[in-house]
Amino acid sequence: MPKIMVVDDAAFMRMKCAKLLKENGYDVVEAGNGSEAIELYKSESPDAVLLDITMPDMDGLTALKHLRQLDSNARVAMVTAMGQQAIVVDALKSGAKDFVVKPFAAERVLAAVKKILS
After folding, report:
1. Rounded to two decimals, what is the model's pTM?
2. What homologous superfamily does CATH list for 3-117?
3. Mean pLDDT by 10 residues, the chain (118 residues)
4. Contacts (Cβ under 8 Å, ≥6 apart) of 81
5. CB of 42 within 8 A of CB of 36?
6. Could you give the 3-state DSSP secondary structure of residue 94?
7. 3-state helix/strand/coil string of 57-107
8. What is the pLDDT at residue 81?
9. Rounded distance, CA 118 to CA 113, Å?
10. pLDDT at 103
11. How far, in Å, CA of 32 to CA of 99, rounded?
């Protein structure tokens, strides 16, 4: 069973995404910001990461770069609000494999996870 790390500073979004993934057979670990995500990545070695872009402490783009330094094969999909296309382009150039726009549709999240795991 693949392990997915959900990173979002909004607890509601993390819980909603984690519930969806668990219902579809994934193990889930959660982090509330980029710094926490990096530490959790080291200890949990998730198979994939859903990483919010806009967070306090350390944003998703910075966290992505750290994750890719830790593991050049890190499988990451960015989670973004509407209107952040320029940041998404930077994230894709920095190694993100896909992105999901909030508020997200369940099918889109599952498709992104399948894509980054394949």
Report:
1. 0.94
2. Response regulator (3.40.50.2300)
3. 96 95 98 97 98 92 96 95 79 93 91 96
4. 53, 54, 101, 102
5. no
6. coil
7. CCCHHHHHHHHHHHCCCCCEEEEEECCCHHHHHHHHHCCCCEEEEECCCHH
8. 81
9. 9
10. 84
11. 18
Largest Cα separation within the chain, whole Å, is 34
pLDDT of residue 51: 96
What is residue 39's predicted lDDT score, i.e. its pLDDT? Answer: 97
CB-CB neighbours of 17 under 10 Å: 26
The token pair at 13 is 């979004």
CB 7 within 8 A of CB 37: yes
Contact 70, 38 (CB under 8 A): yes
Measured distance CA(84)–CA(45) in Å, rounded: 28
H/E element, 45: none
Two tokens at 101? 């726009």
State the CB neighbour count (10 A cutoff) for residue 49.
30
